[in-house]
Amino acid sequence: MSHFIEAVNGLKFLNWDLESTKSSEIAVLKKTINEAIYAGYRHFDTARIYGSEEALGQVISNSGIARKEFFSNLQSVDNGFGV
Predict the structure, then answer these.
(1) Chain centre to alpha carbon of residue 70
(2) How far is Cα 33 from Cα 18, in angstroms, rounded to an integer?
(3) Computed from CA positions of residues 77, 79, 82, 83, in that sequence, does the dihedral angle turn out positive or negative?
(4) What is the pLDDT of residues 39-76, one digit of tens each?
(5) What Cα–Cα distance (Å) separates residue 69 from each residue in 40, 57, 78, 81?
(6) How far apart are CA 11 and CA 4, in angstroms?
(7) Helices and strands, number each (H, E), in the chain
(8) Of 2, 3, 13, 41, which shows the fewest CB atoms inside 10 Å?
């Protein structure tokens, strides 16, 4: 799922939810993330359970775009903290 998000400072950016992208094919996942970046996506919604964090970090690092231009959030699942 993707859509625009507006931050409190008024910055609008595209969000990509990596839940819908399976990590079993890492090369395909990286290509998908790279194409999303090329299309203008700068926010990525992920979670450890999706297994996409490492691929996302690698593609962002190799994108040639400053890290400060990207936003990501890591969703937490039951982590033993009793939350």
Answers:
(1) 9
(2) 9
(3) negative
(4) 888 888 887 777 778 888 999 999 999 999 998 877 76
(5) 11, 13, 30, 32
(6) 10
(7) 2, 4
(8) 3
